[in-house]
Amino acid sequence: MNHHTLADAMTDKGNFTVTKLSESNMGYGMLSVFLGLLLEVSTHGPHAVPRTSWRHQELELMEFSEPGISNYSTLLLSNERDALYVGAREAIFELSKKNVTVRNHKVLWQVGETPIAMCTLKGKSKETDCLNYIRVLQVADDQRLYVCGTHAFQPQCDYLTLADFSLEGRAEDGRGKCSFDPSQSFTTIMVDGELYSGTAYNFLGSEPIISRYSPSPYLLRTEYSTSWLNEPSFVFADVIREGENPTDGEDDKIYYFFTEVSVEYEFFGNLLIPRVARVCKGDQGGQRTLQKKWTSFLKAKLVCSMPELNFVFNVVHDVFILKAAHLRDTVIYGVFTSQWGNVGLSAVCAYNMSAVDEVFSKGKYMQKATVEQSHTKWVRYNGVTPSPRPGACINSRMRQQNITSSLHLPDKTLQFVKDHPLLEDPVLPIGNRPRLITKNVNYTQVVVERVRTLDGSIFDVIFTGTDKGVLHKSVVLGEEVHMVEEIQLLKNSEPIKNLVLSSETQSLYAGSDSGVVQSPTAFCRNYQSCDDCILARDPYCAWEPHTARCVKISDTPSQQLRGLIQSLSGDADKCPKAPIVPLKDYQRVSVKPGSSAELPCLVRSNMAQVTWRSNGSLLTEASPFHFIRENGLLIYSVASLDQGLYECWSVEFVAGVGKNFTRLLAGYVLTLEVSQTATTRQSQEITRSVEGKVEADRVLISAFAPPSFTPAVQLTSPPRSSLTPTSGTDQPPEQQVPPKSDAPEAEYLQHGNGTALLFLFLLFFLLFLAAVAYNCYMQYLPAPCLHLRAALLGTHKKSDAARPEYSACEAGLMETPVVSDKIAAKERPAQNSSQNLRALRDTGYETEPECSNGRVPSHTFADESPPPQKPFDVDCDSQSIQFADADEPYC
Ligand SMILES: *[C@@H]1O[C@H](CO)[C@@H](O)[C@H](O)[C@H]1NC(C)=O
Ligand SMILES: *[C@@H]1O[C@H](CO)[C@@H](O)[C@H](O)[C@H]1NC(C)=O
Ligand SMILES: *[C@@H]1O[C@H](CO)[C@@H](O)[C@H](O)[C@H]1NC(C)=O
Ligand SMILES: *[C@@H]1O[C@H](CO)[C@@H](O)[C@H](O)[C@H]1NC(C)=O
Ligand SMILES: *[C@@H]1O[C@H](CO)[C@@H](O)[C@H](O)[C@H]1NC(C)=O
Ligand SMILES: *[C@@H]1O[C@H](CO)[C@@H](O)[C@H](O)[C@H]1NC(C)=O
Fold this sequence. Notes:
Blueprint: E1 10-11, E2 14-15, H1 38-44, E3 52-54, E4 62-64, E5 74-77, E6 84-87, E7 91-95, E8 103-108, H2 113-121, E9 134-139, E10 144-149, E11 156-161, E12 166-167, E13 172-173, E14 187-191, E15 194-200, E16 208-213, E17 220-221, E18 233-240, E19 253-261, E20 272-280, E21 298-301, E22 305-306, E23 311-312, E24 315-322, E25 331-337, E26 345-352, H3 353-362, E27 366-371, E28 375-380, H4 396-400, H5 411-419, E29 436-439, E30 443-452, E31 458-466, E32 470-477, E33 480-488, E34 498-502, E35 507-511, E36 516-520, H6 530-535, E37 541-544, E38 549-552, E39 587-591, E40 597-600, E41 608-614, E42 617-618, E43 626-629, E44 632-635, E45 644-654, E46 659-672, H7 676-690, H8 720-723, H9 742-749, H10 753-777, H11 783-798, H12 804-814, H13 817-827, H14 833-844, H15 849-855
Parallel strand pairs: 3-33, 39-46
Antiparallel strand pairs: 1-2, 4-36, 5-6, 6-7, 7-8, 9-10, 10-11, 11-12, 11-13, 14-15, 15-16, 16-17, 18-19, 19-20, 20-21, 22-23, 24-25, 25-26, 26-29, 27-28, 30-31, 31-32, 32-33, 34-35, 35-36, 37-38, 40-44, 41-42, 41-45, 43-44, 45-46
Helix pairs in contact: 10-15, 12-13, 12-15
The chain binds 2-acetamido-2-deoxy-beta-D-glucopyranose (6 copies).
């Protein structure tokens, strides 16, 4: 790692120039890890994938919104009452905490004519900006809430009486407590009746301030200086109490989290830096120096980076402090992205509260130094620091020196902290790397709950909200973090603006522009089998073997807890052994010969691999007639040989136990439709004949719920066009061919003269096509034909041309039959009767012009043999240059 220079930053937009900071005046330590190869990270970096994905409609979520009201972005949970207070645009609601669809109270707070007029005069929009966005909701006392709104860019605050849910109407100046601009980020917290906030103090939003408002006559605030705050974007603030018996008489502290423009790094453009700052609750300001200003304001850099990839997440979007009885168990969780949002990565970093405390109480200061006259740099301060330590809270030792309040602090200390608010030592994340990295999301919110499992172990569960209304739930399992599920929490794809968690109701509440959503913290009941319940590795859930249900542990009476099965490592072998699914429970599917069959198989786990078996042997991608798709198996042109047993298996590898868990998800008996009785007989025969072949190890009946699998069988052959592949599963479509086996053929022809006529017509049509194609190939026909040919080739090249038939077909266009046969032989080493039949079906009825082109008249090109060193050689000379396919490497 390069300790004293900034690595050159590179994005896919190009290279940024980063000034190298010389070692002599910069002691950057760990922190010079900087912007790395973003591209490399986004493609090769580790990232979490949610095991299960739930769509909005799949879950029963409770939602609240009212017509005409939007921007439900402020949420406050009441500890004493059954209430969730919601601040929206020009309205405040009291909802039931147990069920947010129940509205208990509502009060409107609109802006008068005059403020609106003044606001529009200043160039703000009357419809959006010049309204009252309720952005502060805090508990003032037992009977009242303190409420602030942007009030048409003239923030105002008022008290809300809870008894009758009305505003007192004694509006006070909200400057410094609430933002002017409804879209500007800011933060507030009420501590012992005093409001702490981080916001802008002016209309333009250019004067940042961290302040405290109290009933006492004056407010305490930050110095207006870029070394204190430099274009900050506040995201969070919270108080850390010292507890009943503070060891050295320390004070309670308020921590602020924000992203600001760095002063200490020189960079091409503004380099953003995530910060943690703190002030002491007992701060009274200084006597002469720092009068009515914080004497305890210090800030440090938060590091959230992947050192091995030299990648830094430098924008913090939200923070949650998971508080514990002891400081060392208190953990700060933050969600970060990179300043260059196009990388599409989000990270969660966790910080040890005692490490943060250590930085503030022992860290080195930075100081501004002037170099080359006008230019200033921030360097480590190596001189003697005054005593008491600048920025420290008043503690027992200071009291012994007769310093009982910040008003008694010596000027030297105060002057020093005024000039040196920035600490050099950074706050490093636990484990020196992000807890979680997720691709293609922008996290906006985070909350964390500490959960006790059945065996008494404790795990942190991280809930992260995205800008697309999705919630991710991850559990920290030591070094590893497992993403349990993702939930489409909001109906629309819009940002989650606020997220709060109540352990009491075991619910999460999300606020967005369009409403409020309440979601349980776990969806245990949705896991249908013991395997699913265990493999989910959800600390909230356990399997109840008697009722065969996945249950939420906290909902289970304590006397029933003993029988429950839980394994956070995901050891599904703990599940009771399920009996083997009898073949009679396999679903019967019968289709007409030549039509296609779709056998559904719903795989809930994004971490499982699906395999299909027919008659007990593995189906591979190589088979041209079987498509293993997301929701099942598609069999094109079912012939008599395709009849048999089909099983959908899921294989899930669990790293925690180092095992593969194999489960049967669906089973089918596929038969050709002959007649009603014949089908039944046939299906019985097949069942009997394959019974022995089925590999049924670890088959779990509970995993296999036949009623839920409804076959979507296309009984009639779809029109030609619908057979043409449209998705990634590209495949030369084929015609319905009378298979060579006897019974189905008879069946097929029984459909009557119409079919026979159609068949004849098709035959002639194909012959005609072959003739056209041949002439086209020989360039007897003019340009349009060649256009078509080039276009067809071009399209096919784009698809994944992994299908052997496909390449054989394409190759057949240019090559000799000898080569073609060789390929065929390579692709099908075991030439059995089935494959011969396939080959027959394959070649006889190709309708794609370029295929018939290659195949039908191929024998006439025998003399155009390619040079032997190029197996797939193309006859470049015979094509005019303008139609030479650009993708063709041999031309
Ligand atoms: C308020 O909500 C609307 C959508 O309803 C959104 O367009 C707008 O940006 C929101 N305003 C703020 C300040 O969040
Ligand atoms: C935080 O650090 C302290 C001291 O190094 C350690 O005892 C504690 O276990 C750490 N806590 C966490 C959550 O990592
Ligand atoms: C603190 O003040 C007391 C009384 O005012 C005085 O007796 C004592 O010497 C002072 N101690 C120090 C360290 O200044
Ligand atoms: C994340 O946010 C950035 C900036 O707003 C945006 O450009 C990007 O498309 C977003 N990415 C995703 C995956 O939503
Ligand atoms: C499965 O076995 C049956 C009976 O032996 C056979 O008719 C059928 O062709 C086989 N199907 C497949 C796909 O191998
Ligand atoms: C688990 O299965 C995968 C493929 O399904 C295989 O590659 C892997 O080796 C297996 N691992 C173990 C430990 O059996």
